[in-house]
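User: Sequence in, structure out. Go.
Assistant: Echoing your sequence, followed by the structure tokens.
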Amino acid sequence: MSSATGIPAHYPDEPRENEPLLGRPGDVTQDEETSIISNLWLGTGWISLVGAILLALSIWLSVFLHPLLPLVSPHPLLNSLGILALTLAIQILQPTWSPSTKRRGQIAHASLNLFSFLCFTAGATIILVNKHRSSDPHPHFHSAHAYLGLTSVAVLVLQYAIGLSMWAFPAVYGGEERAKKVWKYHRMAGYVIYLLLLGTVIAATYTPYASKVLELKTWSVAVAAGLCVVGVYPRASLTKLGLRRENPQ
């Protein structure tokens, strides 16, 4: 049932607190009785879910349809899997709003983030080992993909460290209340880093290995990345980003 304003009647006190960047208040809000898995496709979530899956599938198919290279092939496989896991990590937390749904969302978010971090770390390590063993006289970092990748790894380490410490060790920030004040910056940074990672994947299509060996098409990767953006960002909560104050209860 909806009110005359179109806002779901079962959220009478939270219309502004749960208002996403695009859409009506309550459009992307997890119900207490609903499985947390449904957070992955609420609102525009299904679009980013399709995009992340298409991105991973296109890269995995391109890798396995060509000769495998032990110190090269795992790099795109792991990083595309990391992007998929990170997309799920963002989506599963976005619709949470009550203490119980937030807690469940944070656990799932942290678990998926840990998995994505392991994928990115392994992917970066493999390619660094490859570069170290390579007899290629050219500089190791000579492409936009390489520079974006190095930047992504650096900011990811910082982002994961801050996120984990705020959640598990709030005393570091002077207590839980003070830690909560830092959350909005953590969320903002997360959305910026997500764009950086998608840009890194698109830039990879210009490297000799991706374009000539794997024959990855820039347009196909860009379309999949675009779907991720279209699905994720409209669901961002204005209140969680600090762009709208919470209504007093």
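User: And one key feature?
Assistant: The chain has a mean pLDDT of 84.
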